[in-house]
Amino acid sequence: MRHLLNPLDFTVEEIDELLAVADDIEKDPSRYAHVCDGKKLATCFYEPSTRTRLSFESAMLNLGGSVLGFSSADSSSAAKGESIADTIRVISCYADICAMRHPKEGSALVASLHSGIPVINAGDGGHQHPTQTLTDLLTIHSLKGRLDHLTVGLCGDLKFGRTVHSLINALVRYPDVKFVLISPPELRVPEYIREDVLRANHIEFKELGNLDEALPELDILYMTRVQRERFFNEEDYIRLKDCYILTPKKMKLAREDMFVLHPLPRVNEISVEVDKDPRAAYFKQAQYGVYVRMALIMKLLEVKQPC
Ligand code: NCD
Known about the structure:
- Helix 1 (about 10-25) crosses helix 5 (about 130-145), helix 1 (about 10-25) crosses helix 11 and helix 2 crosses helix 11 (about 280-300).
- This protein is α/β, with parallel strands linked by helices.
- It folds into two domains: about 5-130 and about 290-300, Rossmann fold (3-Layer(aba) Sandwich), CATH 3.40.50; about 130-285, Aspartate/ornithine carbamoyltransferase (Rossmann fold), CATH 3.40.50.
- The chain is globular, with a radius of gyration of 19 Å.
- The model has no long low-confidence stretch (mean pLDDT about 95).
- Helix content is about 35%, strand content about 15%.
- The longest helix has 19 residues, at about 280-300.
């Protein structure tokens, strides 16, 4: 039985196959409408979510399966003190696959160790978010036609932003991907990303404080929200929350073929006027999240592609 806890749980070849299936689903979704008939997905969300939970549910419904679950810790037995290990043992009796989001780093890993069904990490604290990464890879691949030879700028809260950690982890496996990491000093990427992922793999990267300086050289700009819920004090959040705001004026500094991605939700970091720019790809990205989660559910349930 396979789980998805970290983007590296899949080989590059497996990710290529997943993206190819997602691509095929986008072209002709009706062929996939019954491949998961009779299967159930449990969405166990101990933290708020709109896109991730609903795109998982939409994905399973599109495949002909059904969904059950909870959308906050308060409405689960966690509120009574139940452990993740016990919860997942029980969910294994009710569903065929589980997508779990939890505020604690490592929670999906713990669940996978006690689970009778595949567990998908739908975000564990400030650690990893592999299904957002699959979404990001599908988006970049369909916009740029490749995942290699790219200069990727990641901007905002690189410390607590789990989508950033997972995306860097995944992209270092493709040839000639360079990173420009744009953040205030307090929100730089964690040490383990800098040392164990970037330096250990001899990846070219630079850390900048200034977005304007970075913009002209980027193929992809990945904007992120400052992660209020992971701050220890509100003053720091207030001081840092508007450190970067992408505006139409700033977009003039970017190349015509640069695309802007954002995992969403957006707060202030991209002004709504940028939405009209053909390079703004974040809503398209949210749509891709459904296709790639359909492909992922099929893979983990070992469902064959329809002929
Ligand atoms: C992200 C997350 O939950 O980490 N959202 C998402 O899943 N699309 C990003 C965020 O909350 O800022």
